[in-house]
Write a structure and sequence with these properties.
single chain; 403 residues; Rossmann fold; 2 domains; 4-stranded parallel sheet; 16 helices; 45% helix; globular
């Protein structure tokens, strides 16, 4: 029997932050109090009319929401099959979906009387969005970023500094996203009274996966209404890239009770061998990372495995607990796209539609292009989660201008 998802957002996660067998809160004793404070404040403040109205005003007049749904007719013609539509989160202020939850977290911090926002970033989109929120609300901002990503995503580093953020370079381990999360948590632990940790995806201990999902739900809610208005029908398939999984859960959450296929696309990188990808659901197994339980890429000792992706925002060894739960339930299917497929999609979207996508988003575009051919007819809705300004230097230096 098909599961009824109509009340899903109200009932999931449970009171302890569990999405089925995943999620929860596995934190040091000194963090239990701060996590409880954030959870209780969120439940109380986010339901108030004042908070809701202020956030809606910000979304409309500052972020530029709603972002449009766009029929990629020339890309669809190139693929020769089903029709591809794009939810244009690249047109959201700062160029990606990340501002949806950063403005929500910043507004919550203001209501709680916090003075400083602390976070990690990989590709830099979350860092830019949080620095933007901090500037908007008049708060301090501290962004932790791996050395590898600082070099790779230089344009976003410049943007964060211009917005007034302090950048903390993380030089241990692989010097990428996982290490940046570790570093940011330590900084928050040093002063949880005056600061708030604003995690960049639907990961981390409860209540972060729930909070970020709720703030990102606007993407799916808008897209569903827009698609129905444009076509008179729901899409046959919806898809988005999955690293931690915030942009994808934002889209998926509005379609769970609909007769649509839902596909998350993970980064296969250079191939399926350990250390060459970050496809956590496809190749991982349940484990605990950064205070929550999820599908996790692990070595022989059970420690998080080294990961890699051409897209800095996807190189994380775990995945959101809600994605882990939806995978086990069978409601969402997960697949992967490798670096070559990602780059081919990147250049194809540039040349056919005049849209330069983020490398993260290009993974979902790659899957949609392949799936459109297989389907032959019907419709696909892709969350184009961000624009590729941040990736231009890296792509051109390493891969030229495409064919």
């Amino acid at each position: 029997m098909k599961k009824d998802y109509r009340n899903y957002l109200q009932t999931t996660p449970d009171a302890e932050g569990n999405f089925g067998d995943y999620g929860g809160s596995f934190v040091p004793p000194e963090l239990i109090g701060p996590m409880k404070e954030i959870h209780e404040a969120y439940l109380k403040i986010s339901r108030s009319h004042r908070f809701i109205e202020e956030l809606r005003s910000i979304q409309k007049h500052y972020q530029g929401r709603p972002t449009p749904v766009y029929h990629a007719a020339r890309l669809s013609e190139k693929c020769g099959g089903a029709q591809i539509y794009l939810k244009r989160e690249d047109l959201n202020h700062t160029g990606a979906h990340k501002l949806n939850h950063c403005m929500g977290e910043g507004l919550l911090a203001k209501y709680m009387g916090k003075k400083k926002l602390i976070a990690e970033t990989g590709a830099g989109q979350h860092g830019v969005a949080l620095a933007t929120a901090a500037a908007y609300f008049g708060l301090e901002c501290e962004i932790h970023m791996g050395e590898v990503d600082i070099a790779k995503e230089h344009p976003n580093v410049v943007r964060m500094k211009l917005l007034g953020a302090e950048i903390v370079s993380v030089s241990h381990g692989l010097k990428t996203l996982k290490e940046a999360v570790d570093s940011a948590f330590q900084a928050y632990l040093a002063d949880p009274v005056n600061s708030i940790y604003c995690i960049g995806s639907v990961v981390g201990p409860h209540p972060f996966p729930m909070m970020v999902r709720d703030f990102q739900h606007v993407v799916g809610k808008e897209a569903r209404e827009q698609f129905l208005e444009m076509t008179g029908n729901l899409p046959d398939l919806v898809t988005a890239c999955v690293g931690g999984g915030s942009n994808s859960i934002g889209l998926f959450s509005a379609f769970l009770n609909d007769p649509c296929e839902i596909w998350g696309v993970e980064p296969l990188g250079r191939g399926p061998e350990p250390g060459n990808h970050a496809a956590s659901i496809t190749y991982g197994k349940p484990g605990i990372l950064h205070g929550f339980r999820c599908y996790l890429l692990q070595d022989e000792n059970g420690d998080p495995s080294p990961v890699y992706s051409i897209a800095s925002g996807l190189d994380y060894p775990g995945v959101g607990p809600e994605h882990s739960h939806l995978k086990d339930e069978g409601r969402v299917q997960y697949t992967s796209a490798d670096d070559k497929e990602c780059l081919d999609a990147f250049f194809a979207l540039c040349r056919t539609e005049g849209i330069i996508p983020a490398l993260e988003s290009a993974h979902a575009v790659a899957f949609a292009m392949k799936k459109a051919v297989e389907m032959k007819h019907g419709t696909l809705l892709v969350n184009l989660s961000g624009r590729g300004d941040k990736d231009l230097d890296f792509v051109v230096d390493h891969y030229g201008y495409g064919k």
